[in-house]
Write a structure and sequence with these properties.
Layout lengths: L2 H7 L6 H10 L2 E3 L2 E2 L11 E6 L2 E7 L13 H4 E3 L1
Antiparallel strand pairs: 1-2, 1-3, 3-4, 4-5
Helix pairs in contact: 1-2
Length: 81
């Protein structure tokens, strides 16, 4: 799954367009490397987002099969580090 789709599907960001803008700005890293929107994520990847207040890191636990998941199931798909 593309990193921009994954970020919006697991409710890390609200919309896919926001995720795409963040990737274009160069503030999203996958396994320590700057990512493009088309970068595929796999189970076990670490995604870091450089927010103004400081970086936040996430670990991919599962890849969702649907467009979005309920917020109550977020912990099954992503772990905040």
């Amino acid at each position: 799954m593309r990193v921009d789709k994954w970020l919006s599907a697991v409710n890390v960001v609200k919309r896919r367009t926001i995720a795409t803008d963040m990737l274009k700005s160069g503030v999203v890293y996958v396994n320590g490397q700057k990512a493009k929107a088309s970068k595929d994520v796999k189970v076990g990847d670490r995604i870091t987002i450089e927010y103004l207040k400081g970086p936040r890191s996430y670990e991919v636990l599962q890849i969702p099969m649907t467009k979005t998941i309920p917020k109550s199931q977020k912990e099954e798909y992503v772990k905040e580090l």
